Amino acid sequence: MQKVVTRFAPSPTGYLHIGGARTALFNWLLARKAGGVFILRIEDTDTKRNTPTAMQQVISDLKWLGIDWDEGPEADGPNGPYFQSQRKDIYDRYVRQLLDAGKAYYCFETQQELDAMRKQAEAQKKGFLYPRPDVFPTEANAEKARAEGKSVTVRFAMPDETIVVNDVVRGEVTFNGSELGDFIIQKSDGFPTYSFACVVDDALMKVTHVIRGQEHLMNTPGQQTLWKALELGELPKYAHMSVTISDSGGKLSKRERPKALRNAVKAKSGIDLDEVARIANITVDELNDFLRGKSTPDMPAVEAMARHLGVELPEINVVDFFKSGYLPEALVNFIALLGWSTGDKREIIPIEELIESFDLSRLTKSNSLFDRGKLVAFNTEHIKMLGQEKLRTHLRAYLGVIESPVASADDELLDRLIRICEGARTLADIERKCRFLFIADDEIQYDEKAVKKVLLKGDGLEMLKIVADKLAVMEQFAEEGIENMLRSLAEEKQVGLGKVAQPLRVAITGTTISPPIFDSVQMLGKENTLARIDITLKKFRTEN
RNA sequence: GGCCCCAUCGUCUAGGUAGGCCUAGGACACCGGGUUUUCAACCCGGCAACAGGGGUUCGAAUCCCCUUGGGGCUACCA
Predict the structure, then answer these.
(1) Is A254 considered catalytic here?
(2) What is the mean pLDDT of residues A162-180?
């Protein structure tokens, strides 16, 4: 039995998005399940779009998810190089082979000329197919064109035949070669196009299973035909997975984030556009173009504006989920169940079991919508079942990346925070709840609603004063002591514990949301607690 | 426009490849109740689907056709 070889082949044009992560995951899962090889291949043949930092992003995102590779960048392997930009001579050999066999031919149209031809076809409501010449241009023709500085590309002469793709998830899908057209296999800059490089590399790297999104289904007949024309041997098995759909309709894509920002800005009123433009470091004209949907600023600008305006952007890239406080274990579990299921009733599944259960035959045909609410539920479960050490490691990484003051806590403290925040849905929940412990007493931001409801309405402030006096005379400042004091006070006053705890909570945190009050007070310490109560009393007593 | 794919609760899905085991199961969300010092977590209960129309068959969520709806592709991007 042949060893299973799968691959993930991203083009490094930006962060790894959720769709790419899912493709990588399924390929990885299959390789791990079968004890095979998983390859990471970098498809950097588009010299205009690739950036070196983007590649690093993709690599670190994969690592964060826990997806490792046996061959590829940082790993090497027998079939390298794993950067397509370094394999040009290999592709050249295969292009040559096709040219010599009369299965490919030169063309000299410029991009503009092709656009014009396409427009014309469109005007006549016809699909555009490149008109194959009766006689292929010669080597001499190509030389001459090159010498004149003309654009020279190579096209594959697609045979006019019926092509059947045998897809693992879709069964037999039939195409007509004559409708596919002669696509370009070598660009005028000498680099191969995606379909060509992909075929050559998959063959040379001995890939046995190609798992990818449905968006590639239409590329497959061409690639399959190319594979045969190149005499590369047995075809890999193809599996075209369903696509992940956004709740706003359409394929989940990076355009979602600017779109969400634009809509949010439009919905708000009284926004200082000059200020926003300044923060995004773009001109007001550029901002207006963006709002009108004419252009899109780069991601840092979009993110800066969102932060400034307090707009929550939908997470699309893997790092977005990291920054929102999700666990990689939860994300992996969740996306694995988008278009795949175990067949039994398990849903919260650790990675080892995911590998164990993985089976290509259980891939779903229909597209699935990415439901963040369910992701949150998965995250909650994974926080509960992850061990203390792993959870702490994730928390620390998260705190670092969002530059939280909570990051200054040592391991012991972090473990306690995790413990008292039991039931948290995301790491962001924990951070939000515990942040008050790490800021100065006079930096507390008072939530208006909380102040009104807890302090100003009723006798919240009076109760707070009494609590303060009682805390002040406590010799030992331990949880039980604080609990006993608050409970007996509530009993004495014939009120629920909430009546005494809530004013205290608002005083020390500024909000009604915090870890259990006894822990909160104890951790803050006597001095700071009293100081905050004092500040609160001074600030709101006069206002009433 | 052309080509291709898909169609079960609001969402993710089980069931479809071997038609009766499905008065369609689970999970998330939602609603009601409980627990409670806040938020969350937790416990109990509830709502909710085979897109429509034709066939085939003793019998169809399951097979076939049409309609409708959704999605993908249609680059010298990958």
Answers:
(1) yes
(2) 94
